[in-house]
């Protein structure tokens, strides 16, 4: 991870962490922006912040443990007060594309159980229309080629995500198909059509789930977007 290039993300993440208060149950996102949020949460815990946390990935869980952030099992969670996470794209209606880090399913489970989902991004992730970033779709390994064919019929070009010359496997033991739609003009309809395909576990479209979107800029400034 190139930390020098993450300064806008760091600025946005640290702003988001200001919303965390004593006694909260906090969801920890995954990815380069969430990394900075977890780092800042760790500093605040060291300074006396009293929280409990759950993580959206093994990577974030391990980082939280290193920083002394108290983690609790999901069996002890009734509701999550705030989750801080990144996004690969966010449009003016705060619809999101997520899953570049491969944790979209766990991220969506945590987000859907959160009172407030705060999205932190740098300015490059703010778009007029979703679709330039290939949409991640998590699929079961069984007959994934057939699932890929069904996705292709929706008008995209799906490619199996690879890592180290092997298919990338999520923390849940599934594959990810990165789908090039060029443009996603109707995010809600696209989301439902994808999830209707047998073999699809979930996809990286997060429709109207964000409560706040905080953007960091190259000039060092940070601002909260207004909902269009």
From TrEMBL:
Family affiliation: Belongs to the ribose 5-phosphate isomerase family.
GO MF annotations in UniProt: ribose-5-phosphate isomerase activity
Function: Catalyzes the reversible conversion of ribose-5-phosphate to ribulose 5-phosphate.
Organism, scientific name: Paenibacillus violae
Lineage top rank: taxon: Bacteria
Catalytic activity line of the entry: aldehydo-D-ribose 5-phosphate = D-ribulose 5-phosphate
InterPro entries in the cross-refs: NagB/RpiA_transferase-like (IPR037171), Ribose5P_isomerase_typA_subgr (IPR020672), Ribose5P_isomerase_type_A (IPR004788)
List of catalytic residues: 107 (proton acceptor)
UniProt name for this protein: Ribose-5-phosphate isomerase A
Pfam families attached to this UniProt entry: Rib_5-P_isom_A (PF06026)
Residue numbers binding substrate: 30-33, 85-88, 98-101, 125
Record keywords: Isomerase
Entry EC no(s): 5.3.1.6
Subunit field text: Homodimer.
Pathway: Carbohydrate degradation; pentose phosphate pathway; D-ribose 5-phosphate from D-ribulose 5-phosphate (non-oxidative stage): step 1/1
The gene coding this protein: rpiA
């Amino acid at each position: 991870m190139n930390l020098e290039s993450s300064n806008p993300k760091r600025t946005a993440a640290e702003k988001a962490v200001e919303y965390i208060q004593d006694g909260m149950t906090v969801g920890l996102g995954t990815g380069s922006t969430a990394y900075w949020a977890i780092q800042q949460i760790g500093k605040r815990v060291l300074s006396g912040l009293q929280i409990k946390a759950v993580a959206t990935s093994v990577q974030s869980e391990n980082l939280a443990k290193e920083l002394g952030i108290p983690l609790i099992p999901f069996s002890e969670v009734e509701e999550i007060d705030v989750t801080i996470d990144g996004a690969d794209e966010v449009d003016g209606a705060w619809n999101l594309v997520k899953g570049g880090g491969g944790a979209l399913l766990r991220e969506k489970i945590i987000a859907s159980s959160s009172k407030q989902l705060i999205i932190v991004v740098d300015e490059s992730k703010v778009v007029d229309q979703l679709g330039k970033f290939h949409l991640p779709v998590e699929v079961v390994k069984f007959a994934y080629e057939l699932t890929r064919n069904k996705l292709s019929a929706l008008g995209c070009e799906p490619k199996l995500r690879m890592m180290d010359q092997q298919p990338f496997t999520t923390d849940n033991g599934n594959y990810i198909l990165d789908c090039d739609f060029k443009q996603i003009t109707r995010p809600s309809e696209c989301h439902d059509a994808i999830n209707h395909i047998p073999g699809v576990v979930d996809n990286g479209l997060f429709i109207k789930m964000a409560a706040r979107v905080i953007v960091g800029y190259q000039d060092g400034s940070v601002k909260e977007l207004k909902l269009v």
